[in-house]
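ingest -> validate -> predict -> emit
validate: passed (alphabet ok, no gaps, 160 aa)
predict: started
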Amino acid sequence: MTTLEIETPATIFDMADMADAHTQIHWAIAKQMWSHGETHVLREDGKPICLFGIYPNDGWAEAWFSVRPECARHMRLIVRHGRLTLDAAPYPAIVTFCATDAGRRLARLCGFRFVEHWNNTELWQRDGRIIRREKRCGRSSQTAGEQPETPVGRSGAATG
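emit:
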């Protein structure tokens, strides 16, 4: 009988293992995400097979995930947990970056929608607030008198 467990936070060892932290930069990123964000790990018979987290940024957050092929048979549980976690997150906007077909599929199932191509990946967004490229890159684009961005609903029409 297979035992499935979801734990939060994931351990730093889960982060190193699942994030393929084989270089100093990858290890530094994994440690930063673990120490400053929210992490979850799905274990199958004690072995980590899915890692998921939310990393806060200035007024928004980035969701990230790392899955192994064994996750395919548990996709319903992973998506349910991901949606519940994202729904409960206190951030007005949550984005994720996808570079693979599997990543795009998981993002879509968790309620994200494609926004644009960005730095050899795709930017996907879960809710209706648009995060400008300048803000994602840490630069302010709002000038005096410029209005904040208008939330966009699922249909793409402004809902303000």
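The two ends are 51 Å apart (CA to CA).
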